[in-house]
Amino acid sequence: KRVVVLVSGSGTNLQALLDAIAARGPEEYGARIVAVGADRHSATGLDRARAAGLPTFVCRVNDYGSRAEWDAALTGATAAHRPDLVVSAGFMKIVGREFLARFGGRIVNTHPALLPSFPGAHGVRDALAYGAKITGCTVHFVDDGVDTGPIIAQSAVEVVEEDTEEGEAALHERIKDVERRLLVDVVGRLARHGYRIEGRKVMLPDEQ
Ligand code: GRF
């Protein structure tokens, strides 16, 4: 399976996928990353892609006259790599109608909270501020909402005392440790076994 990964930031989820595929081989893992896209040139995930010899593309919202034009450009740039699956890993933009029309049902996102709790761009901060005792991460399919698509898998992470003092960075790092493993597991299983989405349910065979 061909995978395009979209990033905005450090790209450690991307790196986890690259490392897993390098370790197991694309055939056994079931997928290879064919390109990495970003919404900003500063995304260090792009450096990780280049270090892996992968093609990259950048679609900045401000380079286009409208959101719809940006969405069309992102769709075209992604489609050029003929992905079977698109993985949004820390991609901080909401994809539009054209992107969803083209790749809907094949876009996976990872979010650092237990959806439907704490959706949006500050899930870690919001869980901490709310006083949640357990948070975690969610891998889900992207639909036309914000972090509202069918859930594929989740992992829990306990909020501990020092998180409250140290703030969200420590908690987010602990979540990311779990999140990277969850994303690598899910992407591989989706690629190897295929899946069906029935309403909000994702039918994904367990590893035989
Ligand atoms: C991840 O926790 C992702 O869920 C959130 O931002 C973080 C991105 O981390 N949206 P990285 O860029 O993969 O290191």
UniProtKB/TrEMBL annotation:
(6R)-10-formyltetrahydrofolate binds at residues 67, 92-95, 109. Its EC number is 2.1.2.2. InterPro entries: Formyl_transf_N, Formyl_transf_N_sf, GART, GART_AS. One of its GO terms (molecular function) is phosphoribosylglycinamide formyltransferase activity. GO terms for cellular component: cytosol. Residues 1-187 form the Formyl transferase N-terminal domain. The active site is at 111 (proton donor). Pathway: Purine metabolism; IMP biosynthesis via de novo pathway; N(2)-formyl-N(1)-(5-phospho-D-ribosyl)glycinamide from N(1)-(5-phospho-D-ribosyl)glycinamide (10-formyl THF route): step 1/1. Belongs to the GART family. Catalyzes the transfer of a formyl group from 10-formyltetrahydrofolate to 5-phospho-ribosyl-glycinamide (GAR), producing 5-phospho-ribosyl-N-formylglycinamide (FGAR) and tetrahydrofolate. This is Phosphoribosylglycinamide formyltransferase. It comes from Streptomyces sulfonofaciens. The lineage of its organism: Bacteria, Bacillati, Actinomycetota, Actinomycetes, Kitasatosporales. The gene is purN.
